[in-house]
Every structure is written in structure tokens, then in C-alpha cells.
Amino acid sequence: xxxxxxxxxxxxxxxxxxxxxxxxxxxxxxxxxxxxxxxxxxxxxxxxxxxxxxxxxxxxxxxxxxxxxxxxxxxxxxxxxxxxxxxxxxxxxxxxxxxxxxxxxxxxxxxxxxxxxxxxxxxxxxxxxxxxxxxxxxxxxxxxxxxxxxxxxxxxxxxxxxxxxxxxxxxxxxxxxxxxxxxxxxxxxxxxxxxxxxxxxxxxxxxxxxxxxxxxxxxxxxxxxxxxxxxxxxxxxxxxxxxxxxxxxxxxxxxxxxxxxxxxxxxxxxxxxxxxxxxxxxxxxxxxxxxxxxxxxxxxxxxxxxxxxxxxxxxxxxxxxxxxxxxxxxxxxxxxxxxxxxxxxxxxxxxxxxxxxxxxxxxxxxxxxxxxxxxxxxxxxxxxxxxxxxxxxxxxxxxxxxxxxxxxxxxxxx
Length: 414
Hints:
It is globular and about 50 Å long. A two-stranded antiparallel sheet has the order 1-2. A two-stranded antiparallel ribbon has the order 3-6. Strands 4-5 form a two-stranded antiparallel sheet. A hairpin with a 4-residue loop joins strand 4 and strand 5. The chain has one domain: Glycosyltransferase (Alpha/alpha barrel). The protein contains 13 helices and twelve strands. The protein is mostly helical.
């Protein structure tokens, strides 16, 4: 039997779902630039202000839409880019504010985060490959800020945050911002001149190998939080276990996302040592997270023995599970990955894909009923759109370069 990822009818279904998702965000562009946080019906929700990570993700997604030739995508990408080059940019101190408040003033309380800046890098890379106006200059700017402020060359890993004026780095280090940095570093490598690409890929590979060693030391349950010396802090946020960005314990969804990212790094570097870690992370995440409390769906977090801590089901975890299963099936040919892939799309259709109001429900409770305790509304499209694209693309190059086609700065064809 032909596995789902390779069936032409399934690939057509993925393409249709991608277009449906892009249509949901038709009202995301904000006057004056930027992208809105969307509510459950796809309307801008002004209560959340304008957030850099949302704006950058939407610039990335709609740049991909433009590369796909989906009408209406380019204007949304351009509006989001205008937010990144305009009001969200800190003209005085450099870099990007975390957000604009509801009155339009910059949010200076959250400082400058690597998480936000990694997504600006990703957005600028995709927009550059999509030929969007101003994107190349944004990529130059974002690259310089990232290397100057966030990349720690000695550690081979990124700093997590600074105060608002870039005078004091935070002592916290995080695997979430490191993970999204790896994605962004690979994307930059595919968007810059060939002579610059290898340095960006080497940075991604250093962070990937750190994560592989971390997995080996912790039974393939990845610590998320660290001090300035990168020693894991396994107790952090025990009192806030459902934090949307820094939860306590291990996060199966991040293990799945890392599983896929390690394969992308392998495909660009030829280092097949990462494959074993990718498989182990996948298997541990599935064993710990899938139906761990008796109902289908991935629990959000588990403790260091693998017991569920937060039973909410997040749409992004399922999207990353789908993408990881597709990547592992492509890399290994093993039928079990195609079987999980099919099972998880079935789950998405039953519980997450909202055929009435659009997009995917971002959060479900442990009974798979819609919830909004962690993620109210349907803020953006990043994870779901990528789940429709990654199964149709090679492991290298990255999404935007693969959609653009033509010469690449990597010889990988995985």
C-alpha cells in the first residue's frame, strides 16, 4: 500500500487545506503595517495589541502563500513586513519590541527576546525568497542584530533575552528560542549568497548537536530551561505548568519539532549521527504524550518520569507530530511513521480542523472539547500551514527555497 504522504490524492488534499488556512487569515493585515492576533472567527482581536512573533509568523506564512501563487497572499505578507520595518522596529536601540500595546505604544516591559528575533529572521528569509519589497534589507538588518545580540559564538547557542535597550542580557537560557533559532538559521542559509550560507548552517548544526547530547543525558525528555551556564533547571515554573512559552517539565511537542529539525540539519550537513536522536525523540514523545491520559491527543507537558502534567491538547503539537512523522518516513521509509502520520491527520479532522469557522482550534481540553485557557482564539497560521507543506517537500532546502525552486546554496536532495 502506498503511504499517505506519497499519494497524489492526499497531496491534493494538503494543497486544498493550505489554501483554506490562508483564506482564514484574509483580515490579518493591520492598517499602517503589522499582523493582527486573530480570534476564533479570524477577526483581528485588538485586545492583544500587535505582537512581533505573530507579525513575523504571518509574514513568513503569506510569503509562502505568495510563492505558492495563492492570490491575496502578497498584500498580507507586505503588510506584515511593514510592521516589522516600521512600528515594531526599535529605531533607537535596535532590534524589535516584543509588541505594541493596545494604544500603539511599544511594550518595553518584556525586553528583547531571541524567540521574537528568530521569527523576524525566518520572516525576512522567506519574504526575500518570495521577492517581497524591502525583505532583503530586513534580512540584512535582522541578521546583524541576531549575530550581535543573540548568538553566543563561544557557547554555540543563543542568548534568550535582553532588557529593552540591550544593555543587560538575561541569565535565563531556553531551548524554545534555540529550537526556533535553528529553523531560522537554516532559512537564512537558503536566502543569502552562497558564500555566506555555510556559516549559518554551522550555527544551526552546533545547536542541533547540543540538543542531541541533551537528549542522551535526559532519557530523550528535553529540558527546556537553563541558567547562564546552560545547566538545566528542571524545576522552573513548576508553579506555572501551563505557561504558553516556558512550561514546567518536558514538552512532547517540542521533542517532535526537534526530531524534524535534526533531520533538516542532517540533510544539509550530511551528519547522519542526528538520525538516531531524531527517532528517539519521536518515540519518547509519542510514548509520553499520545493518549497518555486515556483519550486521543497529545498532552501538553509531562514530568521527568513521563507522567502527564498539563492535559490540554494544543494544535501546534499535533501539527508538529504530523510534520515529524512525514520527515521520518521520508528519511527512513519505515511504515510505522506513515501509519502515525495517517492517524494524526484523522485526529486533526475529527477534533482540530474547524470546518465551520475556519483554521484549526488552537486548544482542546483533555476530553478533546474546545478550550481557551492557554491559547484563546486562533492567533496565527504558522504551525498548521507548515503541516500542509512539509509532507510535500524534501528535507532540504527549507520551505521557501523549495517552493521558489531553482538553484540552491545546498547540494542536499534528501
